[in-house]
Amino acid sequence: MPLEPAVLADLRAAAQAQLPDIAALRHALHRTPEVGLHLPRTQALVLEALEPLGLEVTTGTALSSVVAVLRGGRPGPAVLLRGDMDALPVTEDTGEPFTSENPGVMHACGHDLHVAGLVGAARLLAARREEIAGSVVLMFQPGEEGDHGARLMIEEGVLDAAGQRVVAAYGLHVLSALLPTGMVTGRPGTMLAAADTVHVTVHGRGGHGSMPHLALDPVPVAAEIVLALQAVVTRQFDVFDPVVVTVGKIEAGTTDNVIPSTARIEATVRSFSEDVHRVVPERLTRVCEGVAAAHGLTVTVDYQRGYPVTSSPPGEAARAARLARGLFGERAFRDAPQPLAGAEDFSYVLQEVPGTYVAVGATLADNDPRTAPYNHSAQARFEDGALAVGPAVLAALALDRLSDG
């Protein structure tokens, strides 16, 4: 049964009441950011924050994860809530009073809000423990920023941490731009893209820059490959199921009059359906090899799979929309007209169990969401007020799904 309006009102009020404490935790996390899979200081802060709640807590082996199980007062299924913990190798330039104390590392993607918000959701749920029929698994995950931390936690058993496979999983991401603080957005189907990386090495033969006919110059071939990759995404893929290829690095040579023997290209590849995600490697590889062969050169293509598409079943996406509107009003939820081209390793979880992933606005009140520095920027700043929204949404998702039985 859907949650009663009175329950949603209580969650909203409780989330607002705990905001100062949750914001203080966020500031502590922000001061001590860590990168990758091993986050000992972050893990210690999480364990300290969870200790008063009386949860069943375990830590990871291959990574410094934290898994906490909240048992309800009555038997029932289990659901999962997730917050990612890692920061980015970015030198902070925000001027915040709680700015990073770890040089060259910053919570530029808002994961400090995710961790604090999941602790906040745990507090909201613990206060209603006796009313809960089932269990809630709290997944505090390192290594989202390219290290496949969610996949590692699945391998270590997070989906079965309650003694049974979770029946649903929910997560969110805060945005320092695009949305005003407190607004929630989501959509059925694809919410975030798949993200792969392709490394192309063009093999030629070096020589003197004045006599290119005696060499096999890889540089113009690399340039042609860059342009051909842009053509392939518009001519071999449906415009309504697109592919994005962005070449971020080209490297060749040492000086102006020497033809190098190799040239290298690195690109990110984004796709929005698993059907396309399956065929992209072969098509891009074929183009690279064909262009090189036309000039009498060869290539080595190293196509590296990244995160899959993050997708929600329609029913779970509708649940998130209904609860966000029930908590904060009809205008609090905005249907996302199209997916975001970012990627998320929560996709690994949603490949295993149904659930949904939403975005929550955290733009500073005096900033325009259209022009504010976006996530991953050294100037990205996040509004603490979002921590009165995210925890309530996560707690409501868990309670609502468990009420289904």
Describe the structure.
The protein is α/β, with parallel strands linked by helices and 405 residues long. Helix content is 33%, strand content 27%. The protein contains 10 helices and 16 strands. The strands form 4 sheets. The protein has an 8-stranded mixed β-sheet, with helices on both faces. It has a 4-stranded antiparallel β-sheet with strand order 10-12-8-13, with helices on one face. Strands 7-14 form a two-stranded antiparallel sheet. Helix 4 links the parallel strand 3 and strand 4. Helix 1 runs antiparallel to helix 10 and helix 8 packs across helix 10. It starts with a helix and ends with a helix.
The arrangement of helices and strands along the chain is HHHEEEHEHEEEEEHEEEHEEHEHEH
Rg over CA atoms, rounded to whole Å, is: 24 Å
In terms of DSSP E residues, the strand content is: 25-35%
Give the termini separation: 9 Å
Mean pLDDT over the full residue set? 97
How many runs of DSSP E, i.e. beta strands?
Answer: 16
Helical amount: 25-40%
Low-confidence stretches: none
Main sheet characteristics? 8 strands, mixed
In terms of structural class, how would the helical and strand content be classed? alpha/beta
Question: What strand line-up does the widest sheet have?
Answer: 1-2-4-3-5-16-6-15
| DSSP summary: helix tally | 10
Global shape = elongated
